[in-house]
Amino acid sequence: MAEIPWKTVVESCGASFDSVRDIFVHSLQAEHFWMRRLSGKSVEGIYNAPFTEYTDVNSIQEYADKVEAETKQYLEKLTDEKLQSVFEFKGRDGNINRNKIEDILIHVTEEEMHHRGEILCIYWQHDIQPPYTSYTAYKGQA
């Protein structure tokens, strides 16, 4: 987002959330929510912060760094056995859900990819070339 004008980042775009900022922050919140829930930590307040609290790219980056650190911490402790275990939780509808942790992590990835696609489309609508975001390039050489 740093490569596009802030006005474009926060303008209403008619997507799943009101702006590029809102879509991106929502993606972070969803990941943060699941990493904390799976870790047995409180998820209180994750969705309470208004998107307008993020007033520039740096404030979004700070939140992204926090979420990435918590995700990394969770994944570093995750064993194959735990990955296959069933996680039980109460859903938004109040019902008890039971899913394998592996499936929840796939859901988190799918959620992020869905919203990343939205953001890429918004870039294209503004004739902005989106950055190349290859996972292997992000991870670097083994």
What would you say about this model in short?
The chain has helices spanning 6-10, 20-39, 57-77, 80-84, 101-125, 135-139, and strands spanning 86-90, 96-100.
Question: How would you portray this structure in words?
Answer:
The chain is built from six helices and two strands, in the order ααααββαα. The protein has 142 residues and is mainly alpha-helical. A two-stranded antiparallel sheet has the order 1-2. A hairpin with a 5-residue loop joins strand 1 (86-90) and strand 2. It has a single domain (6-126), classed as dinb family like domain (Four Helix Bundle (Hemerythrin (Met), subunit A)). The protein is globular, with a radius of gyration of 16 Å. Helix 2 (20-39) runs parallel beside helix 3 and helix 2 packs antiparallel against helix 5 (101-125). The longest helix is centred in the C-terminal third of the chain and has 25 residues, at 101-125. It is 57% helix and 7% strand.
Main features:
single chain; two-stranded antiparallel ribbon; about 55% helix; about 140 residues; Four Helix Bundle (Hemerythrin (Met), subunit A)
